[in-house]
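Good morning N.,

You mentioned wanting to compare the apo and holo forms, so I went ahead and generated the holo version with C6P. This is what I fed in:
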Amino acid sequence: MTSKALDINALRAQFPILDQQVNGKPLVYLDNGATTQKPVAVLDALQNYYRGVNSNVHRGAHYLSDEATGQFEGARQTVADFLNASREEILWTKGTTESINIVAQCVAREQLQPGDEVLIATSEHHANIVPWQQACLAKGATLKVIPLHDDCSLDLDAFDQLLSEKTKIFAIGHASNALGTLNPVKEMVAKAKAVGSITLVDGAQAVAHFPVDVQDLGVDFYAFSGHKLFAPTGIGVLYGRRDLLEAMPPYQTGGEMIEVVTFEKSTWNQLPYKFEAGTPNIAGAIGLAAAINWLDNQDRAALEAHENALLARATEQAQAFGGLKIIGTAASKVSVLSFLLDGGHPADVGMLLDKQGVAVRTGHHCTMPLMDSLGIPGTVRASFSIYNTLDEVDRLFEALEKVKTFL
Ligand code: C6P
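and this is what came out, ligand included:
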């Protein structure tokens, strides 16, 4: 049930973009899995930074540079607290994709041997497939894939069978972007660690929905993107366990990541800077910290309950809607409803919804192997966030009624 404590109108007022007409209808933004909207607190933080502070970090012998450095490193501490990590273990990246690529390049390509295995799931986003696949191809290792049950939950018996001492890396999505399925990552990580595997969780679709504690999960690496957490695009995070980061070679080389450079050789800066070559996305990091601080000031339990109520209403309506098939009916899900409409190609359904002001994503959702395994070309995906309303869920289904008539 939606928590009574949640004042949804006051919450929505903090997201000015929501208050607009699209194609002559009030916007219903249900594409939050792709990117979330940004609250005024984040927009203001970006403006304040560029209006009053803008300067390069860790370099200048002047006031603004000190100020920018303080805010930038403060932002790192905010992220560390958010994940229950230490600040040296928080690396700034462009997003989840780059975070996973760092581990694929600096761990997988360094350590994999012929015969080794990397274990992922059928439901992974391409960002958590292709980097491992390419590392396996380069090193003669094998990519193993956990299948799904009919409800699109992971087949955990198959996971137990696939996991072995050959498994050197286990990389799993916390929640599936295409299906919403929430995976039991803590239990899986513990099992993978018991066979000596390095573990990574792709948290792109998790962090905006519920609190994450990397110590509690026991995971070695955790990746997420700022833009799916009410923050700007172009900023993301890789959490890495300190001893693993210490042992890894740098990802990119250049300024900032070095300690001493001569023409003959270079030595590396301490963590986390060893992994941050070049001028970082300073405003992005400050914007991400503003988003986290803003979120921390909300009643997260109430937000979670509200999202669950949105998903429950959407699922109920979808089940009652003739000719609609839900794709992904696992018991444990984040607020994502993927579906197919009889006789309607997802792209056409999406376009007809857009004409009515309803924004969804259609297609393979960067999960082509998942779509292949389900034998479908793609889905229509409505992905809900904290500022969506039960009325908007109803608007989606009213709009779908019209789509059905049209089709
Ligand atoms: N999913 C979606 O509409 P980036 O692009 O690096 O910020 O995030 C990549 C990524 C990785 N893992 C998961 C589970 C994801 O959902 C995404 C991004 C968006 O579903 C865009 S494809």
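Residues 33-34, 95-97, 125, 127-128, 173, 177, 202, 204-205, 225, 361, 365-366 surround C6P (CB under 6 Å).

Happy to go through it together on a call whenever suits you.

Best,
F.
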